[in-house]
Every structure is written in structure tokens, then in C-alpha cells.
Write a structure and sequence with these properties.
about 180 residues; alpha+beta; Ribosomal Protein L22, Chain A
Length: about 180
């Protein structure tokens, strides 16, 4: 089986459905209920489920066996960047982003990773879209650890009108798998 340095998983808001609720833990369900706009809740739901699916696929376990900690490093509330905390496996570094109808999850086994997607029409200056997503991805990777963000690469979003980027650990053997779910 081929080992990848990173995996980038794409999904869309159309994947949202009540069946995904079973994948969320109680803290995530509570956060889902706090969203006022249905689209925001849908993006969170798909992102949380996709994160579990991606890690489970990588680790060869069931999505229900993936343990995610979202504790904010600044205030302790459960809205921080996700971390995988399964004691029975070497946990990958992960990053989640969503905008418009797109959701993306990235994971890396080689070091902290950051990913960002942005619907270009939502930016004040659409000409800055590429720079925006690169900076956001780099910020997310750097929050994962001091050795993060060795290289930033543009990602091809699966829909027109979006910009996307990933910040990956510095490696000469950059190898990324791109997957779609469902």
C-alpha cells in the first residue's frame, strides 16, 4: 500500500444529512445546535464527519473510533482547531476548512498541516484570493507546531470560483493524495 505524506479530502454541503449526526460526539452535537444559520451548521456537520472519515480511512479504523479534541488553546472552550487524540494509533496532524458549499480536510503523518478554501466572491478583493488562502493555510499549520509550514501549495478546488491552498511540512518527497467524499 502506498503511503502518502498528506491526504486532502473534499466534500460539499450536499453531503449534509441527519445520518452524519451519529458520527459526532456530544460536544460536536452541542456546537452544531448553536449555529443560527443552517448552512453554517451544515458545513460544520460535514467537516466534522469528513474529518472522522479521513482519519479512519488513513488509520484503518471505524469513524466512530476517531477521537477529536477541539479545545481552544487560548480559552479552553471546545471551538479550537481539531486534534486527533486516539491513544491506540499514531495520530496524524489535521486541518479543516469550509467556505460556500465546499469542505476540505487535510491530514499529514509528517508534521503539522494547514488547509484553507475560500469562495472568491465572498472576499472584499477577489484578486487577493490566492494570497488569502495561502496565508490562512500557513497560519493553521504554524498553530500545529513550530516546525510547520515548510511549503505552501495551491490546491485545485473541485468547483470554479474557489481558491484553496495547503501548508505542508518541509519535505523534498512531497506526495499528496486527493480524495472526494462521499
Amino acid at each position: 500500500m502506498r503511503q502518502f505524506m498528506a491526504e486532502v479530502w473534499w466534500s460539499s454541503l450536499t453531503a449534509a444529512g441527519l445520518g452524519l449526526l451519529d458520527m459526532l460526539d456530544p460536544t460536536e452535537r452541542s456546537r452544531l445546535e448553536s449555529f443560527e444559520r443552517p448552512a453554517d451548521g451544515g458545513r460544520f456537520l460535514v467537516g466534522a464527519a469528513l474529518l472522522r472519515v479521513a482519519v479512519a480511512s488513513h488509520a484503518g479504523i471505524a469513524p466512530a473510533d476517531v477521537s477529536v479534541d477541539r479545545t481552544c488553546s487560548e480559552c479552553g472552550a471546545p471551538h479550537g482547531a481539531p486534534r486527533i487524540v486516539n491513544p491506540r494509533m499514531a495520530a496524524p496532524w489535521v486541518s479543516v476548512s469550509h467556505s460556500g458549499v465546499l469542505i476540505v480536510v487535510a491530514l499529514s503523518t509528517k508534521g503539522p498541516i494547514g488547509v484553507d478554501v475560500q469562495r472568491i466572491a465572498d472576499l472584499n478583493d477577489p484578486a487577493t484570493a490566492a494570497e488569502w488562502v495561502q496565508q490562512e493555510a500557513l497560519f493553521k499549520a504554524r498553530s500545529g507546531g513550530p516546525a510547520a509550514g515548510g511549503s505552501v501549495c495551491e490546491l485545485q478546488a473541485p468547483l470554479a470560483g474557489y481558491a484553496a491552498a495547503a501548508a505542508l511540512p518541509a519535505r523534498e518527497d512531497l506526495d499528496i493524495a486527493f480524495l472526494n467524499w462521499p
